[in-house]
Amino acid sequence: MTGFHCIVGLLGVTLLPTWAQAATVTGTITWTTPIPDEPARVLRDHHFCGQAKPIFRRQVKRDHQARLEGVLIYWDAPPKRLAARPEVLWIKQENCQFSPRLSAARAGTVVRFENRDPVLHALALESPQGKNLARFVLPIRGQKTRPIKLKKPGLYRVRSTEGHLWSSGHLMVFPHAHYVFSDASGHFELPDLPVGALTLKAFHPDLGTKTFQVTTSSSAPVGLSLRY
Asked: Model's pTM, two decimal places?
């Protein structure tokens, strides 16, 4: 059953959907066939890029048990009307890489980029449909871009246009808040889900997308063991 909270503001009344009962999904995600790290070919600004810290073609963080950190787990089919809480998302260019490489935010969030390196960076932000939304050139350390609003849900991409071919990033934008990243031990907890049959997804820029079905209950969290 769907109920509503009533929030009264200066502009009127807003009705927000909620659930009479909420469920939680927890789990651990691992990499069953780890691939050795492979250094990226740094052909530009090699006097700086990769000197303080190696740069790899794939950036897959895992512990000694191959449990994955930084995998994005989310509910794939949420209700259409949920409260929006847009914020400012900062993505930095450090060691000639985007940091964080994978971000998640609600629709309406503003994204800005900052150059933290002593070399020139240039970047392009692309929409989920592959259209160019903005291009920036940041020649000075500490320089920041103007804000760009991410209006529509989907997977946005950002890439270097200055010859740093290994440098790319992803921004997953949702119309809801039902998403979470796995921690350093590969564990995740996704709360406040509705009770019933749900489709969840896991996404990693280098490992791709995994889809899985789960039936939730309000009586106890559902535990999952996910594998790439």
From this structure: 0.86
